[in-house]
């Protein structure tokens, strides 16, 4: 066991949080004890863990001294991130942007959860983003994919989505595969055209640098050197979710996005996105990012609309529960 000390800072209480909640998170995550004595902050635990916690707290204090506002959400996100990679610089994490290298402006996160999301996509091979519409799940995933492609970290982008509106049976629709699936991947196209010139997008599609296909068409493939995005994943089945996750090849990463309150599957089918939260929750190398209505970055009225619908659903469930009890 080792014990190290840090000079107490006036910012330390802000970092500790209400009832030292953030300190308890640090203690649990790193397996250390933290206490204040003689105007010093003491950290007791295995030497490596104590040293890492010392670095974490020092960087948090420095960030606040430099004017960085760190709420509970930001500190809650940075604790496990620093545990996974103690070499990161916290200031870099909070100033991180997505560089597109196209002459267009860099894309900056607009909420703490978006910062966490960008951080996860840059460091983990499997990232799952779950939350309501308008939180930037798809847009930021596309931005990261384009950035990785333009910087030649991957050789292609693979975009896929369950086409439940067509029952994944696209044969009766006119046109080739691209024309058939195109309406169901329109949101991904919108994000692409916002980051790249339309002609360049079409050229990349023709060259196979950007591939667009329904989820059902991913079966039996191994996707190497690719940035894969599965959008609207709440409409994938358990079997499809397992299938796409096991398509991951060498030098590839996958980002899975969805909203578990918007499941359009037939009633007898279970959502693969709901199921995967339980199956993979303790698997190392996989990061789950949970968005809420607070992260909505569309028109301000969207937040109010989402809250109104959530309240209506809760009220309906209460009424249904009361009626069932009275039977």
TrEMBL record:
Record's protein name: PhoH-like protein
UniProt-recorded Gene Ontology molecular function terms: ATP binding
Ribonucleoprotein as UniProt keyword: no
Gene3D superfamilies found in the cross-reference section: P-loop containing nucleotide triphosphate hydrolases (3.40.50.300)
UniProt keyword ATP-binding present: yes
A GO cellular component entry from the record: cytosol
Name of one Pfam family that matches: PhoH
Family membership: Belongs to the PhoH family.
PANTHER family: PHOH-LIKE PROTEIN, PROTEIN PHOH
Keywords, in A-Z order: ATP-binding, Cytoplasm, Nucleotide-binding
Ranges for domain PhoH-like protein: 107-310
Subcellular locations according to the entry: Cytoplasm
């Amino acid at each position: 066991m080792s014990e190290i000390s840090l000079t107490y800072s006036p910012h330390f209480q802000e970092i500790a949080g209400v009832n030292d909640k953030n300190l308890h998170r640090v203690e649990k995550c790193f397996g250390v004890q933290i206490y204040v004595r003689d105007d010093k902050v003491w950290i007791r635990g295995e030497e490596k863990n104590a040293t890492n916690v010392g670095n974490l707290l020092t960087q948090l204090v420095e960030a606040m001294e430099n004017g960085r506002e760190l709420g509970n959400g930001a500190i809650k996100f940075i604790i496990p991130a620093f545990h996974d990679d103690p070499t990161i610089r916290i200031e870099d994490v909070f100033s991180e942007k997505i560089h597109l290298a196209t002459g267009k402006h860099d894309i900056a996160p607009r909420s703490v959860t978006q910062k966490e999301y960008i951080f996860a996509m840059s460091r983990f091979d499997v990232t799952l983003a779950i939350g309501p519409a308008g939180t930037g799940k798809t847009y930021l995933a596309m931005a990261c994919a384009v950035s990785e492609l333009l910087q030649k970290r991957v050789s292609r982008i693979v975009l896929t989505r369950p086409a439940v509106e067509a029952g994944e049976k696209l044969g009766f629709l006119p046109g080739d595969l691209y024309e058939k699936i195109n309406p169901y991947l329109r949101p991904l196209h919108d994000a692409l055209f916002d980051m790249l010139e339309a002609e360049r997008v079409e050229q990349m599609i023709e060259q196979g640098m950007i591939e667009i296909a329904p989820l059902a068409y991913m079966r039996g493939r191994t996707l190497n050197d690719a940035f894969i995005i599965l959008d609207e994943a709440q409409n994938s089945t358990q079997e499809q979710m397992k299938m796409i996750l096991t398509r991951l090849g060498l030098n590839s990463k996958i980002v899975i996005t969805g909203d578990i309150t918007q499941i359009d599957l037939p009633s007898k089918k279970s959502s693969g996105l709901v199921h995967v939260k339980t199956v993979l929750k303790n698997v190392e190398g996989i990061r789950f990012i949970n968005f809420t209505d607070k992260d909505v970055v569309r028109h301000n009225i969207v937040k109010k609309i989402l809250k109104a619908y959530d309240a209506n659903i809760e009220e309906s469930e209460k009424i249904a529960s009361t009626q069932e009890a009275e039977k």
